[in-house]
Specification:
The chain is mostly helical. The protein has 6 helices and no strands.
Length: 122
């Protein structure tokens, strides 16, 4: 999967940068502003769950309309992550692989399987 992800992220980033640059929006995309915008978009993902039980939200996302709304908000988050990564010179796919490696070390299967305990308490 990761082999397919890198070219996809690279292609998405290139398309996103072309979109941004055609509109002369880079001037508004400081790292601080991009991070603030990422958090605003993440809050919109969270807002989809507001006042709903787990079951209600899962049922909503199982509908075409609910899935489309969630997909749109997730896409907004991903696009801001791509812009942040481009601006900061981060290879997002490499960073994600590294983070998974770190998590595998922090949460060995024999200690963490089936547990929500934080690694510091394992």
């Amino acid at each position: 999967m990761s082999e397919k992800l890198t070219p996809s992220l690279d292609n998405l980033t290139a398309r996103l940068i072309a979109f941004r640059d055609a509109r002369d929006w880079r001037q508004f995309h400081s790292l601080k502003n991009l991070i603030a915008s990422l958090n605003l978009e993440a809050a919109e993902v969270l807002e989809l769950t507001q006042w709903k039980t787990d079951e209600q939200f899962e049922a909503e996302v199982a509908t075409d309309k609910g899935k489309a709304r969630l997909a749109e908000e997730c896409a907004d988050v991903l696009l801001y992550l791509l812009l942040i990564s481009e601006r900061a010179g981060i290879d997002l796919a490499d960073a994600a692989r590294s983070k998974i490696d770190q998590n595998e070390a922090k949460y060995p299967i024999e200690k963490s399987k089936g547990s929500a305990t934080k690694y510091t308490d394992l």
